[in-house]
Amino acid sequence: MRGRLALRAAAAASWASQKAGRGKGSMIGGLIALQIAPDLMRQLGQECPGRRTVLITGTNGKSTTTRMTTAALGELGRVVTQADGANMDAGIVAALTVDRTAPLAAIEVDELHLPHVADALDPAAVVLLNLSRDQLDRVGEINMIERKLREGMARHPGAVLIANCDDVLITSIAYDHPNVVWVSAGSGWAADATSCPRSGEPIVWEGKHWRSTGADFARPEPQWWVDGEYLCGPDGLKLPLHLALPGRANRGNAAQAVAAAVALGAKADTAAAAAGTVREIAGRYRTVQVGQHSARLLLAKNPAGWQEALSMIDPAATGLVISVNGQVPDGEDLSWLWDVRFEHFEGTAVVAAGERATDLAVRLTYAGVEHTTVPDTLQAIESCPPGQVEVLANYTAFRDVNRDLDARA
Questions:
Q1: Is the pLDDT of residue 363 over 60?
Q2: In angstroms, what is the C-alpha Rg of the chain?
Q3: Residue 182 vs residue 32, higher pLDDT
Q4: Is residue 136 scored above 60 in pLDDT?
Q5: How many CB atoms lie within 10 A of CB 76?
Q6: Cβ-contact 14, 26 below 8 angstroms
Q7: What predicted TM-score, i.e. pTM, was given to this entire model?
Q8: Which of 14, 297, 343, 407 could pair with 29 in a Cys bridge, judged by C-beta atoms 3.0 to 4.6 Å apart?
Q9: Dihedral (C-alpha) 158, 164, 165, 169: value to the nearest 10 degrees?
Q10: What's the burial of 206, exposed, middle or buried (CB within 10 Å: 0-12/13-18/19+)?
Q11: Is 109 helix (H, G, I), strand (E, B) or coil?
């Protein structure tokens, strides 16, 4: 009865939000529903007994991989998911209420929330992407998170873990689990895994292979991997992998999405083709015309994400706008700027923007990058030479520039 009341209240709140022009209202609906029925997520998980759920988590790539997993599962039936990337409890509850009879669910989960979300939804599979240092003022130390996720997954021995064996911390989470599909999805950031999370001894890298010097802990052999333009899998499987999204990291995301879909019964070739149709995720990667500028929008939220996003910058672009805010969702401590390599931009007009443009400008100065400072992101785009402009922003800066672009349109 409490759950039914919570769902009615959520629907009313969402309706009121839409009528007031404040958005779809899914988040406020989810928040109100959880206040009335704190165990509503568990109720929704049990409401459809035959539903198979895939949870997707990691520091970077959650939204992209969730969208790819949703597409890859499409041949098996209707899939309920988050369209907006809201990956904490209220957003997950809001997503599950959209289609309460869907036989499949692909749910993005914040890494800190994974253990209790898994307990509530009893997933058929969990995609473990990567784990690296994020906002220390909100998230905490990375080894503590690894231990919590390892304990959480141990409570679900029946779930299939789709784990990135190139990531030391992710491998540690899944290493003792009885049901693992190992995927070589790449790891461009190893600065947070220089020591073994189990013994504390150094991790030694030998090409792609890594091992601990102080424990029986080493990189497992992958069952899925990316080989150039192909996705390779069990029993000699080799499929073309044509993606609409740029970057090496997205090829790894696609490999894990396809592996998850296959684990639930999808055909590998159909799943790979479906993952390749994903073009935009909540405004990420979209290109917008701003006067004489064609601006492509990229999002990065932590050192590993920034390093990967910077590798996607088109060297032929006439301008690069880097926009940084320091609000609570971003992390108010911007010391991570000094962990990111900004030193490789020559021949491109670089502009520091955002609320913390001055902090960024100091970092760019020490990196030897010639730049100008224009705090307003739209004005920063317009200050670049005409042509293609790459816009790289952190969380709230990305949100704000999308809002401003939509308002202008």
A1: yes
A2: 21
A3: 182
A4: no
A5: 17
A6: yes
A7: 0.87
A8: 14
A9: -90
A10: exposed
A11: coil
pLDDT at position 21, please? 60
Pick from 172, 166, 167, 132: which is nearest to 151 by CA?
172
pLDDT band at 20 (very low <50, low <70, confident <90, very high): low
Average pLDDT estimate for 162-174 = 96
17 within 8 A of 24, measured Cβ to Cβ: yes
H-only helix segments in 280-394? 303-311, 357-366, 377-382
Could you list the beta-strand ranges (E) of 165-300: 180-184, 203-206, 209-212, 224-227, 230-232, 238-240, 287-290, 293-299
Looking at residues 54-59, what average pLDDT do you find? 95
What distance in Å separates the CA atoms of residue 268 and residue 237, rounded to the nearest whole number? 9
pLDDT of residue 333: 82
Q: Alpha-carbon distance 147 to 150, whole Å?
A: 5
Would you say residue 192 has pLDDT above 80?
no
Q: What is the 3-state secondary structure (H, E, C) of the chain?
A: CHHHHHHHHHHHHHHHHHHCCCCCCHHHHHHHHHHHCCCHHHHHHHHCCCCEEEEEECCCCHHHHHHHHHHHHHHHCCEEECCCCCCCHHHHHHHHCCCCCCCEEEEECCHHHHHHHHHHHCCCEEEECCCCCCCCCCCCCHHHHHHHHHHHHHCCCCCEEEEECCCHHHHHHHCCCCCEEEEECCCCCCCCCCECCCCCCEEEEECCEEEECCCCCECCCCCEEEECCEEECHHHCEEECCCCCCCHHHHHHHHHHHHHHHHCCCCHHHHHHHHCCCCCECCECCEEEECCEEEEEEECCCHHHHHHHHHCCCCCCCEEEEECCCCCCCCCCCHHHHHCCCCCCCCCEEEEECCCHHHHHHHHHHCCCCEEECCCHHHHHHCCCCEEEEEEECHHHHHHHHHHHHHHC
pLDDT at position 90, please?
A: 84
CA distance 294 to 296: 7
At 262, which amino acid appears?
Answer: V
Identify residue 310 by its one-letter amino acid code.
Answer: L
User: Residues 292-344: pLDDT tens digits?
Assistant: 999 999 998 888 888 888 888 888 899 999 999 988 888 788 888 888 888 77
The residue written with tokens 């491109």 in the block is 348
pLDDT, position 73:
97
